[in-house]
Design a protein that fits this description.
This protein is of the alpha+beta class. β2 and β3 form a beta hairpin. Helices cover 38% and strands 16% of the residues. The strands form three sheets. A six-stranded antiparallel sheet has the order 2-3-1-9-8-10. Strands 4-5-6-7-11-12 form a six-stranded antiparallel sheet. Strands 15-14-13-16-17 form a five-stranded parallel sheet, with helices on both faces. The protein has 24 helices and 17 strands. The mean pLDDT is 93. α6 packs antiparallel against α17 (478-486).
């Protein structure tokens, strides 16, 4: 786990190692245990190291083999030991790292090496024989890759602000991305970012780059959301057994490390299942962590009763962090600074604070992100269960979209208003694509493979890596996702969502954890804004930079500030916070 960086220069130019060092200097927290650079003419690579597997110098990066293959890699290959055993008859290894296994896998299988990897990864690999650079992102986009093309050069990094720090990046705002941000509670899916000059490599993509500046992308994985003949006749119990075994395998895989592994335990079904399955695997004395806040606006600020119950049930070493409102407000700036892109979700700062505590105990944690998207756990999934296949777009939009295209007329200044409903077009294209059998299948595919990557997945990566923590997500094991995609949607949407996981939970967990109202990571102070948060958002929205940028209509902002807790999105987020967070991020990073 780490931060990767690089520059690729085209048409006879030489790559700048200085630019790579500038990128690395802006993401030291992602890899505080070491750094390295390497260059060869038109390619320069950099690496910030967080030592998890083979913590010796033999595992350092960038890594170069005897044939000149060079790699910088962020992530973890969970099946690297199995792959190594398969490759050892043909290759000699100098380390015990998963990085070297990737190099040997590429030697053996070429571009198809990616199909042999089980894990989360962002890879830059230089092949001197083919005179190509491969940029590769894992199947679910757990590890980020940001890229910028400018002046005959391509730069890449694990963080958007790190690219900006290298200089010469176009930091003007992308009008379509702004539309997405306001439509989908701050989600801007790949390839866009909020900045015109920075893009993201999409998940499950290999980008092949040549010295003349040409490149092409290949999507290497795309599960089908249809029923398969091999599952014909399966009962609900059969599906439950299959999910249990697949999830158990996913949890076991994510214990691979040369350092201790803990769990972020919210007290909800998903993280509690991870603890139960780890206990079933024989893990004793597991470290677990939960966070809670002061209540506000009638909302409770913690779920400690449930996380404590699970911790007692399975005998974990449990750390409980309670953050008062007075302590919480000063932490906002740190969380905003750690965001690669603006993220208005109220729990971003919660993850930032929790990971600060985690770093005092362990370097690696498992957590329950992704279960809701994969297994249909959100309230907005319910209307889709009864919608016709052709009604997926209207049903999803009605329960998910924050602001319609028409409503944005009253929010944005005219020069920022997109002439077409670009967000609805993206939804329509994805939802009508073949390979999804029902309306709910189509929405779960959209959620899992497009929106989730730039919401909970990005949030978790940014906040954990800000403290040098590697966060692993068993519910996004690609084999589990493939199984869930084939599962009849009625088994997922039942019981108010995640029915199949709730039935599994009843076998493993105290009943009180399963049969309870669905909770979210509760941060009431950012849903129901009071002081000092109202002053904080007023200052951001009235700052000279905000006035000069002129994104939002002043009358609309004044109306929100006069009644800060009236306007909510369909998923119950505070609209004022959504707008203010964007300005906070732009101002913090000096862009836009």
């Amino acid at each position: 786990m780490c931060g990767i960086a690089g520059e690729i220069a085209f048409n006879g130019r030489r790559a700048s190692q200085e630019a790579v060092l500038d990128i690395m200097g802006a993401m030291t927290s992602r890899g505080p245990d070491g750094r390295g650079t390497w260059e060869a003419g038109w390619v320069a690579l950099g690496h910030q190291r967080l030592s998890i597997i083979d913590v010796s110098t033999a595992g350092a990066q960038p890594m170069v083999d005897d044939g000149g293959l060079a790699i910088t890699f962020n992530g973890c290959i969970y099946n690297y030991k199995e792959l190594r055993r398969e490759l050892e008859p043909e290759f000699t290894f100098r380390s015990t790292s998963d990085t070297e296994v990737i190099l040997k896998a590429y030697r053996k299988w070429g571009d198809d090496f990616v199909h042999h990897l089980v894990g989360m990864f962002a890879i830059a690999l230089y092949d001197p024989r083919r005179q190509e650079v491969l940029l590769v992102r894992d199947r679910l986009g757990i590890k980020p890759v940001y890229v910028s093309h400018r002046h005959g050069r391509l730069r890449f990094a694990s963080s958007l602000p790190a690219l900006v720090a290298s200089g010469g990046i176009d930091t003007s705002i992308d009008e379509a991305a702004l539309h997405h941000y306001l439509s989908w509670h701050s989600i801007v899916p790949a390839p866009r970012t909020i900045l015109d000059g920075v893009q993201k490599l999409p998940a499950a993509t290999i980008r092949t780059i040549r010295p003349d500046g040409t490149w092409h992308d290949r999507e290497y994985w795309k599960p089908s959301y249809t029923r398969k003949a091999e599952h014909s006749g399966w009962s609900a119990a059969d599906w439950q057994d299959a999910v249990r075994e697949s999830l158990k395998t996913a949890v076991r895989r994510r214990m691979v490390a040369d350092v201790p592994v803990g769990v972020l335990l919210s007290g909800g079904l998903d993280s509690s299942l991870l603890v139960a399955l780890l206990a079933e695997e024989g893990q004793h004395g597991l470290s677990t962590f939960s966070i809670g806040f002061d209540g506000a606006g009638g909302d409770s600020g913690n779920e400690f009763a449930y996380s404590d119950l699970v911790a007692r049930e399975f005998g974990t070493r449990h750390e409980q962090l309670h953050v008062s409102t007075s302590e919480f407000a000063p932490s906002i700036a740190g969380a905003v600074g750690a965001m690669s892109e603006p993220m208005a979700s109220h729990d971003v700062t919660a993850f930032h604070l929790l990971c600060q505590t985690v770093t005092e105990h362990v370097k690696v944690v498992q957590c329950g992100q992704g279960a809701d998207e994969v297994f249909g756990g959100y309230g907005y999934h319910q209307p889709l269960a009864s919608a016709g296949r052709s009604g997926a777009l209207s049903a999803f939009s009605a329960s998910f979209v924050d602001h319609s295209h028409e409503e944005l007329l009253n929010i944005l200044e005219p020069e920022w208003y997109s002439g077409t409903d670009v967000s609805r077009e993206v939804l329509a294209d994805n939802l009508r694509a073949p390979g999804a059998e029902t309306a709910l299948d189509a929405v779960l595919r959209l959620d899992t493979h497009l929106l989730m990557v730039d919401d909970p997945v990005k949030r978790l990566d940014n906040m954990s890596m800000a403290w040098g923590i590697e966060a692993r997500v068993p519910f996004l094991d690609h084999e589990l996702v493939e199984l869930a995609a084939a599962c009849p949607p009625e088994f997922k949407a039942s019981q108010g969502g995640k029915g199949i996981l709730k039935d599994l939970g009843r076998q493993l967990l105290p009943a009180a954890v399963v049969d309870r109202p669905k909770g979210y990571f509760p941060v009431p102070a950012l849903r129901h804004l009071e002081e000092p948060f109202i002053s904080m958002v007023r200052e951001a929205l009235h700052a000279p930079e905000a006035k000069q940028r002129g994104l939002f209509q002043p009358a609309y902002i004044d109306g929100l500030l006069a009644n800060p807790n009236v306007q909510r999105t369909p998923v119950n987020s505070n609209v004022l916070w959504q707008l203010a967070l964007l300005e906070m991020w732009l101002q913090h990073h000096g862009v836009g």
